[in-house]
Every structure is written in structure tokens, then in C-alpha cells.
Amino acid sequence: MTWKAKLYLFVIYLVGLSIAFYAFSKLDKNILLIVILWVIIATPFEIKPIQVSTDWHYTLSFAIHLSLLIIYGSWIAITVAAFVTSIADLLGKKGPVKLIFNVSQFSITLYLTGTVYNLFKNRDIPFLLPDDLLAFICASLIYVVINTLLVAVIVALTSNRSVFYLLKRDARMVVMFFLSLVPISMLMVILYKEHHPLTMLLIIPPLAFTHTSFRNYASLKIETRKTLEILADFVDCRDRYTAEHSKRVAQYANLISEEMNLSDSDKELIELAGRVHDLGKITISDSILLKSGKLTGEEKKIVQSHPEVAYKILRPLQMYKRGSIIIRDHHERCDGKGYPRGLKDKSIHIGAKIIAVADAYDAMTSDRPYRKAMTKEEAIAELEANSGTQFDPGVVKAFINILKKRD
Length: 407
Ligand SMILES: [Fe+2]
Prior knowledge:
binds fe (ii) ion; two-stranded antiparallel sheet; mainly alpha; Hypothetical protein af1432; Arp2/3 complex 21 kDa subunit ARPC3; 407 residues
């Protein structure tokens, strides 16, 4: 962990835990039962978070936190959040660093949310609509912004990506997630204020349904990616000479993108595409794919159809929409002599050019039935000899820089 990440954690721990302990000290014993009840209700949601992407987990705590804050005030909401998070993280064996960070960030988020809510709230009356609608909306916004920012900063600091990129990448899902919870939270407050306090518990079943729907949607995306990567690995494993090929190509592609200073979003796109770039070979029979002799004209045509096949498989999937073009074009050449479309230099996506170099290097440095693996120096010489014709000169230069740095 970098010193910046350590400093950030230290500040969040210091501020967050101070708020949490102060909230705990202000706790009225008469309200202890309510705290225990909400800890019991909220903990199951926190134990099974919704994985929005590889970096983001969300839970439905937002709806519960906000309702408790409006009904009982910030200190009770912070105390419930601290207990729920601690129990869930202990059961999930997340370790002390994550546990203390989660407790701290919820404490800071709720404290600031409470401050903003009280700033806009009509103090003469208890929560009343429509008078306090503005206060409710402002409080919701502050919660979402602070909560997301506090987490985004630590993810960015520990994964070498920018906060802006992380927020932009998952903005749609995050906004959709929180928007669906604002009315639920408001309904809980209305039921509490205008009916019997226990009627707000009626919201728990729809909340659980929302939770399950989001979990299913999020896991479907992740499972789709995993399934396609497993299929790509199967293609590699059909030939003992190409085992792990796609994984290595994705790693090389990531290093080249880094060396070429591409944006975080392009880096991720190219790595994702590299991981499944040969998926289209799934339709090629073993007699052709594993043939050690020379391919006939017809067999060559079948092999060369694999980028288009992968494109057709991946194009309909939202996650691979942009990446499928890179995969379709990874055998194109700068001089226009590649396949399947014979595209020329400027019409080829930089990602396809990067995968072409990574793919060729890995093929050259792996054993094949008809030849031994080339040495690194021989492969570099081959890349240089074909720079400007087959390969993009900028990509070749960046990759050779990386290979030389590794010596
Ligand atoms: Fe290929």
C-alpha cells in the first residue's frame, strides 16, 4: 500500500471512529431495543452485498440508514450502521483494515448526511411532506456522493486508477441503484410518522426483493464474463501448445496499454478483449485446429473466420459491445493485408493493434509442433522486421521497451 493510501486510511479512521464513539456515548438506554431490532433487520442485507463491478460492492443499507437518520437522528443511525457493518464484516472475515474502514466511512457519511438534512429541515415540525422534501432529497444526494467518493478514493489509491474513471465506469449502475432506494426510504419514514411505528417493517419484504433482483442482475454480468473466459480457456487447452495463451495475451496487452499511456477505460477494454480474443476458434474442428501440416485453402478460410465468429458471439453482449470490434480486427495488418476485412492502418482500433503484437509475441515465444519456441531476442527482431507492415510501429516500440525493462 502506498503512503498516500496509508495516510488516507489514517485520516478516515481517525475522523470516522471519533464520530462512531461519540455517537455510541450519546446513545439513550431507553432506545436500546430499537437499535438491537434494526441491527437484526439490517445485518442480513449487509452480509450479502451486491457486486456492482470488480471494485464495487453495494448493500441496501442506504434505505435503512436514511430512514433511521430521519426518524431517530444521526447518532442512532451511526450506531446501528457501526454494529451492522462490524457484524457483517466479522462474519465475512474481511479483516480489520476493511472493517474499520467500512465503519469509519459510514460514520462520516451519516454524520455529513445528518448535518445537511438538519440544515434544510423545517425545525418547527417533525418530518412532513412536502415541506421537508428538499431536505430529504439533499440528504439522499449527500449520502450517495460522500459514500461513493470515500470508497472510490481508496479503490483508486490501491489500484492505480483514477477516481474519475472509477466513478464514470459504474455511474449508471450506482445512480440506478440509489434512485430505486430513495422512495423505499421515504416510504419507511412516512409509515413510521403517520401510522404505527412498526408498520415501517412492512417495507422489509419489498426491500429484500429489490436486494435479490439487484444481486441477480449484478451476478449475471460477472458470471457472463467468467463463462466466456472459461470458454476461451477451453479453446486454449484444446491444444497443449496454446494453454494459457489468452491469459498471457491479456497481460501483455495490459502492459502495452500502460506503456502507451492509454486511458484507464481503454486499458480495461483491451485487456477484456485480449482475454477472449480467440473465442471464435470454438467452432473450428480439432482436425483443422491441431493440424501440424500445411492447411488447405478451405481449412485456412475456416481458421481465418474465427475473429468474425467471436464478433458475432460477443457483439450482442453489452459488456463486450466495444471490445468485440477489437477482437474482430486483431488479425488485421497496417498494410491492409490482414483478415477478415483487409482494413488499413487508421481504420484499425489501437486495441486490435495491441492484441496483434501481444498475440504474435506469445505465439513466437511458445513451442509449436512444427518448431521450437523463439528466444526473446529472436521474437523482438521479428516484431521489428514487421513493424510498419504487419504491426503498428508505436505498439512494437512500446512492447520492446517493456521487454527490455524486464531484463
Ligand atoms: Fe486470433
